[in-house]
Design goal:
The complex is a heterodimer of chains A (about 110) and B (about 120). With about 110 residues, chain A is an all-beta fold. In chain A, about 0% of the residues lie in helices and about 45% in strands. In chain A, the strands form two sheets. Chain A has a five-stranded mixed beta sheet with strand order 1-9-8-3-4, with no helix packed on it. A four-stranded antiparallel beta sheet of chain A has the order 2-7-6-5, with no helix packed on it. The radius of gyration of chain B is 14 Å and the shape is globular. In chain B, the strands form two sheets. In chain B, strands 2, 4, 5, 6, 9, 10 and 11 form a seven-stranded mixed beta sheet that branches. A four-stranded antiparallel beta sheet of chain B has the order 1-3-8-7, with no helix packed on it. In chain B, about 35% of the residues are buried. Chain B has about 120 residues and is an all-beta fold. Classes of the chains: A mainly beta (about 110), B mainly beta (about 120). The interface of A and B includes residues 32, 34, 42 and 87 of A.
């Protein structure tokens, strides 16, 4: 599975949009981009995933570049409860295991 | 989304004893479940893939005789930490995917984790 690169930490003001980048330059054609987050001392929570097209759900939007080498997770109106470590993972559609990198620690500040 | 329940959420045990952690998929069947371990300030590390009705597949460096995995039904996998030592103290997390639809792009759901402390 392709490796991902994320900034180790980011800050965001409450109520503003949080844009979390992820580089996955070695992604292959059958690999999806998944985003999870982990609030302290809890199991990871699924946020969103996509293959080529941009995706949006009730939690976030996922913007994938045309060459698929990078993506951005957007939390449109960040709240204090969005403070967490956000993981970007690429995975093919064969097998099921998710390999976690170091993620981005997002701190939402009042 | 689907629910994965993990029990217990927290356990303290004496060195040398064994501890069993349960992972249940509550509203879907999971032929495959995954076990992770997480040390403080670190990311999740995959330990093993639990396969219903067959042996688990362990990641490199994980001792299969120390971390026993049983996946006896489509909704339950257990991880037993045998002869626990203080260095086994960690946060253990399971996950499962609902593959009943046949698609490989489905998301994985995670349990709430088990905090193991070996004293």
């Amino acid at each position: 599975d392709a490796k991902t690169t994320q900034p180790p930490s980011m800050d965001c003001a409450e109520g503003r949009a949080a844009n979390l980048p992820c580089n996955h330059s070695t992604i292959s054609g059958n690999e999806y981009v998944y985003w999870y987050r982990q609030i302290h001392s809890q199991g990871p929570q699924y946020i969103i995933h996509g293959l080529k097209n941009n995706e949006t759900n009730e939690m976030a939007s996922l913007i994938i570049t045309e060459d698929r080498k990078s993506s951005t997770l957007i939390l449109p109106h960040a709240t204090l409860r969005d403070t967490a470590v956000y993981y970007c993972i690429v995975k093919d559609n064969q097998g099921g295991k998710l390999i976690f990198g170091q993620g981005t620690e997002l701190s939402v500040k009042p | 989304g689907a629910v994965v329940s993990q029990h217990p959420s927290r356990v303290i045990c004496k060195s040398g004893t064994s501890v069993k952690i349960e992972c249940r998929s509550l509203d879907f069947q999971a032929t495959t479940m995954f076990w992770y371990r997480q040390f403080p300030k670190q990311s999740l590390m995959l330990m093993a893939t639990s396969n219903e009705g067959s042996k688990a597949t362990y990641e490199q460096g994980v001792e299969k005789d120390k971390f026993l995995i049983n996946h006896a039904s489509l909704t339950l996998s257990t991880l037993t930490v045998t002869s626990a030592h203080p260095e086994d103290s960690s946060f253990y997390i399971c996950s499962a995917r609902d593959t009943s639809g046949g698609s490989g792009s489905t998301e994985a759901f995670f349990g709430q984790g088990t905090r193991l402390t070996v004293v």
